[in-house]
Write a structure and sequence with these properties.
Helix content: 55-70%
Number of helices: 10
Shape: globular
Radius of gyration: 18 Å
Structural class: mainly alpha
């Protein structure tokens, strides 16, 4: 279902500005239907959380952040050596810069995307950053599921189906950084590598300390 055919879902209006529609077009062009559905659910969940918590946020910037948050997983935006979150953040920043948005907006969206998997940090940042993090957590791990009404849940999943999400999201994550597993060091995506790669050896922070070049 094209987002352009939709206006309001679960009481949340999907931004339909030129900027929002251009971002959606990039997601549809370079992403997958699976990532598209996930990204739109994230926006809706994040917005519901924002409204429930009575937080002031910019719906358009939250939407852009949601649309780009997993685009670092796809070949068009993936780098050979950066975390996929940074690739997505860089792509969003370039997009916003090309559309003349101010540095403050670019930085806010960059932070939201780059930190959306960073537990213990993102939730304490600006509303757009914290809400993207919460929307991702709700869709991926069910964090805050108890706050969803049955009607809102049904409306969102009907519009943007999960399509065996639990079984497909881990391989989808892995496909985005299988060529650069070292970028998962120190973050939760190392769990994905451990799940997908038999006998995966994680880089260990303590080993980095003990084997540093210092002589003492």
């Amino acid at each position: 279902m094209s987002v352009n055919a939709l206006q309001t879902i679960a009481g949340i209006r999907i931004p339909d500005s030129k900027l929002a529609n251009d971002a959606t077009d990039l997601l549809l062009e370079h992403g997958t239907e699976f990532i598209y559905n996930h990204s739109l659910r994230v926006f809706l969940f994040a917005s519901l959380n924002g409204n429930r918590e009575k937080r002031a946020y910019d719906p358009e910037l939250l939407y852009i952040s949601s649309v780009f948050h997993d685009l670092g997983l796809v070949p068009h935006f993936s780098s050979p050596d950066k975390r996929f979150e940074v690739d997505g953040a860089n792509a969003a920043r370039d997009f916003l810069k090309s559309n003349g948005l101010p540095k403050e907006s670019m930085q806010l969206v960059w932070d939201a995307i780059a930190l959306h998997t960073t537990i213990g940090v993102a939730e304490y940042k600006e509303p757009e950053v914290a809400l993207l993090y919460s929307g991702v957590g709700l869709d991926v791990m069910g964090e805050g599921y108890e706050h969803l009404t049955a009607n809102d849940r049904e409306a969102i999943v009907t519009a943007f189906p999960r399509n065996d999400f639990k079984n497909r999201i881990i391989p989808t994550f892995f496909s985005g950084f299988a060529h650069k597993t070292d970028t998962t060091f120190g973050n939760i995506k190392a769990d994905v590598c451990a799940y997908m790669i038999p006998n995966f050896e994680r880089k260990n922070f303590c080993e980095c300390i003990l084997h540093s070049p210092w002589s003492e």
